[in-house]
Specification:
Blueprint (H helix, E strand, L loop, with lengths): L6 H17 L10 E7 L25 H6 L1 H4 L4 E6 L9 H10 L4 E5 L9 H5 L6 E5 L5 H7 L5 H18 L5 E8 L7 H10 L4 E6 L15 H15 L5 E5 L5 H4 L16 H4 L9 E2 L1 H5 E4 L4 E3 L10 E2 L5 H4 L3 H11 L14 E2 L2 H17 L1
Helix pairs in contact: 1-15, 8-9
Length: 382
């Protein structure tokens, strides 16, 4: 298995990245721990809560050039996560299987976010079952047919369920451990009462984790469907976790509040962080009396657009900082612009695109260490 060729490099890179974050280094020692690729921006569904429904967000413009994927090959072997998502359905990319093979052959495990509607139509099930180490994140909004089809317009609940079960059976028939299936589900007014049904569906699919995330209001229509009561969310997540115990399944939660000052220290994929978890002395360690901000994206991730351009993250709106088809990424990772952004956040300065981003948090040493331990556990157990 080619993934095993580079465990030492990824383990050491994880330790280096955690040290970079703990010390808030503007010049980081680690290579990118996470690589996010916008595969395409075409989709076969029309979901009201999707960023595609925001008229200001581009869509239907193209597919990421496979040359950009090949140019990143030396960096894949150090990354714990190579995400294939973007503003569309990855399995609509004409070269998706070649892209997956390039990443796997480089020693990385790609993570693909899919709506699971096209798998049988394009013979995806047999192709990906046993292809190699891979995480398949399936977007599921609703635990009942009525709710699911209300929010996943043009999708058929029974067809998606059949695709998920078919993949589980194909994997079992081949004796393959991959792809590992996880669910990602929006927590909103219509779905917060269906968390246990979503867990049951995940169990049928053989899923290992269900990640619930509060719906992010990409368009004004969704404001009225947001769940703002964090106590109600915690209660629903508690029910999901209790229900998931019978399956040995993990439940994660990403609150995704848009205001870091409103959210405070609460957040993180493993659940809410209490105020007691925050090291106040380190929070104000910049000596300015301002909040000491942190963003995992800025310290450990790169984002490549559908055109092959490089941005700090998928939420960055102030333009690209390089072009992967022209520039050497090694010259950009610790470039003056990137270092300045890291320094600004450490000193309590929030650039325009970061003002209302749910990824921006108060610097929290305990949470960074906690996340690093989980990352290492996942890497070793992969």
């Amino acid at each position: 298995m080619k993934l095993l060729n580079y465990p030492y490099k990824r383990i050491m890179n994880t330790v280096l990245a955690s040290t970079d974050k703990l010390l808030s280094r503007d010049k980081v020692a680690a290579r990118p721990l996470r690589i996010h690729l916008e595969v395409n921006d075409f989709c076969n569904l029309k979901c009201p809560h999707c960023p595609r429904e925001n008229p200001d967000i581009p869509k239907n413009t193209g597919h990421i050039p496979i040359e950009a994927i090949r140019n990143l090959e030396p960096w894949f072997r150090y990354a714990n996560y190579v995400g294939l998502a973007g503003n569309g359905e990855p399995f609509l990319h004409p070269d998706i299987m070649d892209i997956l093979r390039i990443i796997i052959d480089a020693g990385a495990a790609p993570s693909v976010i899919s709506n699971a509607t096209l798998w049988k139509k394009y013979n995806i099930v047999e192709e990906i079952a046993g292809l190699g180490p891979m995480l398949l994140m399936v977007s599921i909004d609703g635990g009942t047919k009525k709710t699911f089809e209300k929010w996943r317009l043009k999708a058929d609940f029974d067809e998606v369920r059949d695709n998920l079960i078919s993949l589980r059976k194909a994997r079992e028939a081949k004796g393959a451990a991959h792809p590992v299936v996880n669910f990602i589900s929006c927590l909103m007014k219509d779905t917060i009462g269906e968390v246990t049904q979503i867990v049951d569906l995940a169990a049928e699919a053989g899923a290992a984790v269900v990640l619930f995330q509060n719906m992010y209001p990409y368009n004004k229509l969704m404001e009225e469907n947001r769940v703002r009561d964090m106590a109600q969310c915690r209660d629903a997540i508690g029910k999901a976790r209790q229900h998931a115990k019978q399956y040995g399944m993990r439940i994660d939660w990403l609150p995704m509040s848009v205001d870091v000052d409103e959210r405070g220290a609460e957040g993180g994929s493993n659940g809410a962080i209490t105020a007691a978890d925050v090291d106040l002395d380190h929070t104000l360690a910049n000596g300015t009396g301002k909040q000491h901000y942190h963003c995992d994206n800025i310290w450990q991730q790169i984002h490549v657009t559908v055109e092959g351009q490089i941005k700090y993250c998928c939420f960055w709106t102030d333009g690209a900082i390089g072009d992967l088809t022209k520039d050497d990424f090694g010259d950009l990772w610790n470039s003056p612009k990137w270092r300045q952004l890291r320094s600004d956040l450490s000193n309590g300065i929030k650039p325009g695109p970061c003002q209302n981003c749910h990824n921006l948090v108060v610097h929290n040493k305990k949470q960074i260490i906690r996340s690093a331990r989980q990352e290492l556990r996942d890497l070793i157990n992969r």
